[in-house]
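Many introductory courses stop at the sequence. We go one step further.
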Amino acid sequence: MAEQVRRLFEADLKIGDKGDNVLFLQRWLIGYGYAIAALIPDGDFGKMTQRSVIQLQQFLGVSETGILDQTTKSALKISHGFDFDSIPV
């Protein structure tokens, strides 16, 4: 789990990205209630994931870019202690 958290912080995630990092993000968004109802954890950063990230960014009070960028990640560290280890799977 710690390796996934480290990798998630290495690069921004945005529309078109695919893979385990996106799947991890999607599960976290769903588990913490930030995902919109239509989000399905499939490892594909599409429109539903983007809308869910925007919802998260609105909650955090950061720019609503739809990208899991460094600003959003920093706000997550502060607001949630970035507790991705407790991700519900």
